[in-house]
Amino acid sequence: MTQTDTEVTRLLRQWRDGDEASLDALLPHVYDELRRLAAHELRGQHGHDTLQPTALVNDVFVRLLGAARVDISNRKHLFATAAKLMRQILIDRARAQSREKRGGGHWQRADLVEAIGLPIEENTSLPALDEALRALEALDPRMAQIVELRYFGGLEVSEVAHLLEVDERTVYRDWAMARAWLRERLD
Amino acid sequence: MSAGGANARMGENQPETHRGDRLPVENMTPQRFGELRTQFHALMELAPERRAERLAAIGEHDAGLRAALERLLANLHAPDLDPPQPSGSHDALPASRIIGAFRLVERIGRGGMGEVYLAERVDGGFEQRVALKLVRGGALSRDLARRFARERQLLARLAHPNIARLIDGGVTGDARPWLAMEYVDGRSIARYATDEALDLARRVALVRRVCAAVAFAHGHLVVHRDIKPANILVGADGEPKLLDFGIAKLVDDDVEATRTVLPALTVRYAAPEQIAGDRTTTATDVYALGVLLFELAAGRSPYARAQAGDSDWTQAVIGEAPTRLSDALAPGPDRRRARGDLDRIVEKALAKAPGERYAGAAAFGDDLDDWLAGRALRSGIGGTRALTRQMLRRWRWPLALVGATVLALGVGAVVAIGQARRAQEQAAIAQANLDAMLGVLSAANPHKFAGREPNASEFLKTAAATLEAEYAQQPALIGNALGEIGHGLINLGRARDAEPVLVAAVAAIERDPGASAARKLGTYKLLVFSQDYADAAPRALATARRIEALAGEPDADPSHALDALGSAAGVLSKRGYFDEAAHLFARGDALAFRGLSAAARENYWRQRAWVALRAADSTAASDAIARSLSAQGEDAADFTALRRAEAHALAAEIALAAGDEKRAGESLALAAPALLDEYPAGHAQRAAFDVLRARYRLQNGDAAGASELAQSAVAALGDADDAAKDRLQARCTIARSHAALGACDASRAALALAKAERDALQPLLPRERAAFDAASAAVEKNCAR
């Protein structure tokens, strides 16, 4: 086991014991883990079968937590933060890549998104998506959060419903509307 | 991944895009967007053909809104409307939303078994909120539906303040079973303990309350199987409440389902037998309660490596020794208090082998009670030996049967064992269905057994008959259940009753195309054990032949084969069929070296040692027992103290037969602590060991001590048939002791009694013949007239 994992375990324990600040320290580690796994997937078979459609974000967190000892409010916070961070990472990377053109980046954006099983549509410009999501946040924050949790947190509609404590049907409809709206806007 | 570009869009007669007529996103306000959303949601609920109507109506007073909605619909991906899971419509709120007397409000959870909804009662004049579980999966077969209904009744009887009550249940129109449970508003037990900063004693007391609830359920023949912090909520009143009692079992009906991989998050609390896919029992709940206690007390898992991420949970649960509780606590008063008895309690609850744990939650809770009160532990594992220990020991077997029978009956979360007090009742309802029969029995509670002879055999026989009649169409179920019942009867010393049950078990298993050779071997092994009496010898021979054939099948794994071969050889040797036994051993010897576990080889060589001893072949016996002990030495941790002691006792007996007194003395010294500790005076096993000790004393010149010990052993052995050989050995020892002391009348009298025993033996084996001849010669020599 690596130093990092021990550190992650320690931070997780602190966080579980109520130290909110340790979550912020925790997330970069989690994303290292995420990248490591994604890289591993990319090195290995490139087929889509190697990963469950369930998003890796979710899996990684659950794996690191080791148990469902996180109550709903904390879990909500955790997943919401994870999704936000994922969004940030992907968009930063996309921006960097577009700056460098096809410079030294190890992965193509699409590869990463694909490798970790996020349900973002092909050929989506991530910076444009980010901008559209900001606009949506201003109009309907919850709808934007649904998109964020789906796209960047990799959660299923039903999981989002559970997390946000919203009727599942409502999430379906919001999700469908958000995607239609984003598509319209991004076209 | 993206649904891709190939999906049909839902809008009709719409061009691909309307670039010249975009949604007014730049100047959209939240209010306007809210209107758009409301209308969009409403439209989505309509059938497609009615949407145009609705759009037209909207357009009449707000053309802009209509245009925006049309563009949204044009961009709608059909799959966006689909549920995310392949399980289809089950993920959405069911179309009707009314189930039984309840209206679904929203989904509050989803698990391996299906979905959980918050629901409200819609009939009658009172408000009631329930957690309604809708079981995943297709329609139930008629058989399963019947079983479901029956078990639901069982669960409905679980009225206990610490158990979330099953309120209602049924089967939906599309044949999905559902259950309405009391809705509990509270924090998880772990969160509660943390929030309230409970000290160790209060945490233990909390678990103790949970134990009481679980024990209550065990007493009602229900096993939880999924106890974990998330399933125990503590309400504002500080009372813990268990959720989902018996649900896990209720839901997975077929054996395969119980063997599927556990959801990742449950593995942490799963008992080794659950991970291995073996049967779950009351001891499974005990294990989970042990983990719960440990985690509540220490704030972390007993499996340090898994907790640290150095191994996965499955490996840890199966192979990692749990941390000692006190070692996981911070230095301080709690740690000092936990050291000793509480450590032992947790260790016992977390034993890898179900048989080494507390038999049920009641026994576990009793020890916690005692610990909280500062008393000696009732189980006797504490630092101070408690008086009740021997009593509980006596009832250990019936308690173990409680566990073993749970799944064997295959009809759900049901514990069953006969209980002397109710044997008559049981007989009276012999015709009754399984429900009633099982309902009569409540057994997980040791003090109900105190002072009574367990008469489980009546019950087990009845259960076997019922099973055969009711489940004839399910050979796998019958085979398992009858096998287990036969096992129980053998352990009760009722081989003759066990035999027909096991014959039926074997017939069912042979009929079951899915039965593996290993499973057949296991059941035939039991059958041959049940044929361990004189009249059954010809049938035992036939069973041995079948075992031999099965052992040669390609999918027979060597350890099962070896076990069955050794057992058959042992039984045949008792009837004097030494050639046949040797033949089976020849088959076994070929397997015994193929990288088998130490346990399998140890057992096999011990059987060989016994057979050689019966044949009075002390050279072969010495060789075999040496191999057996050497197998034990390879991995001492694999063998319980009792098992090691039994091997040493056998070694002592063989050394005595070979005239090696020094070795006999050493072996006895190794055997004595565990055997004397395990079997109280008066126990048949203790008496047999005492006879051996008496023989050693005699060889060592302590004739008076030998005589005394042998006499008390005779008294303890009573006149049971299966104690005849031990009685013969005891009487021979008495005769020889008296002869050595010059008490010739007493010696001859004892020899006469020994002769009577000898003459009654069917067959008379070389070992007993030799013992009698030696005694006879000694009396002749010392008391020659």
From TrEMBL, chain A:
The keyword Chaperone does not apply. Residues 6-186 form the RNA polymerase sigma-70 ECF-like HTH domain. The keyword Lipid metabolism does not apply. It holds the Pfam family Sigma70_ECF. InterPro entries: HTH_Sigma70_ECF-like, RNA_pol_sigma-70-like, RNA_pol_sigma-70_dom, RNA_pol_sigma70_ECF-like, RNA_pol_sigma_r2, RNA_pol_sigma_r3/r4-like, WH-like_DNA-bd_sf. One of its GO terms (molecular function) is sigma factor activity. Gene3D superfamilies: 1.10.1740.10, Winged helix-like DNA-binding domain superfamily/Winged helix DNA-binding domain (1.10.10.10). GO terms for biological process: DNA-templated transcription initiation. Keywords: Sigma factor, Transcription, Transcription regulation. Belongs to the sigma-70 factor family. ECF subfamily. This is ECF-type sigma factor.
